[in-house]
Amino acid sequence: MKKFKKIGINKKKLDLIKIILIVVAVIFSIGQLFPLVWLVDFSLNKTGDLFGANILKWPNPPQFQNYKTAWVDGKIFLYLINSVIVNVASVGLTILLSVMMSYAFVRMEWKLNKAVYGFVLLGLMIPIHATLLPNFLSFKAIGIDDSYLALILPYVAFSMPMAIFILAGFMESVPKSIEEAAVIDGCGILRIVFTIIFPIVKPAIVTVLILTFLSTWNEFIMAATYISSDAFRTLPFAVYNFAGQYASNYAVQFAVMTLVALPSLIIYIILNEQITKGVTAGALKG
Amino acid sequence: MQKSNLLHQVQCRSQIFCIRFNAEVKSFCIRFIGKGDFMHALFKDKKTIFLLVFPGLLVFLYAVFLPIVLSGYFGMTEWSGIGKPVFIGLENFKNLIFNDSTFITSLRNSLVLGLALICIQHPLCLGAAIMIDKIGGKLEKVFRAIFFIPCVISVIVTSKMWVQIYDSQYGLLNKILDMFHLGFLKQEWLANPKLVLGSLFVIIMWQGFGWGMLIYYAGIKGISEDVYEAAQIDGAGAAQVFKSITFPLLKPVIKINITLAMISAFKQMEVIYLTTNGGPGNASQFIANYLYIKAFNSYQYGYGNAISILFVIVCIFVTIILNKIIKKDVIEY
Question: Class assignment of domain B100-332?
Answer without folding.
Answer: mainly alpha
